[in-house]
Amino acid sequence: MRYGTVIKKVVRADGWAYYKIEWHHDQNYQEAAAWRNEISGKDHRIEEYRGDDLSLVQNPRQITLAIDAHYEFLRSPEKK
């Protein structure tokens, strides 16, 4: 999962909204993309993402709650 901030929106003639994203803490993805580019000899970078390729986090607090619950589970002695 990647997290980022929308920095630009363009609606094209095809009716779709396309977004440019400033990705945050994205080193793992960048390294994987660089490796793919190296082995394929092509540049696979995506500069704009179509709206249906993105998911909006409605309430950022939900991310924190999910992470907290995950770590609580990992620390619990009765892990399944």
| Net shape | flat
Helix coverage percent: 25-40%
Oligomerization state? single chain
What is the total number of structural domains?
Answer: 1
- Beta-strand percent range: 15-25%
Q: State the total count of DSSP E strands.
A: 3
Q: What is the count of DSSP helices, taking H or I runs of 4+ residues?
A: 2
Question: Rg to the nearest angstrom?
Answer: 17 Å
One letter per element, helices H and strands E, the order comes to EEHEH
Derived from helix and strand composition plus strand pairing, the structural class reads alpha+beta
Describe this structure in words.
Strand 1 (3-11) and strand 2 form a beta hairpin. It is flat and about 55 Å long. The chain has 80 residues and is α+β, with helices and mostly antiparallel strands. The protein has a 3-stranded antiparallel β-sheet with strand order 1-2-3, with no helix packed on it. The chain has one domain. The protein has 2 helices and 3 strands, in the order E-E-H-E-H. The protein starts with a strand and ends in a 5-residue tail after the last helix.
Which features would summarize this protein structure in a list?
3-stranded antiparallel β-sheet, single chain, 36% helix, 80 residues, 2 helices
Quick recap:
This protein is α+β, with helices and mostly antiparallel strands. It has one domain. It has helices spanning 27-40, 61-75; strands at residues 3-11, 17-24, 49-50.
Write the layout of secondary structure elements.
Blueprint: E1 3-11, E2 17-24, H1 27-40, E3 49-50, H2 61-75
Antiparallel strand pairs: 1-2, 2-3
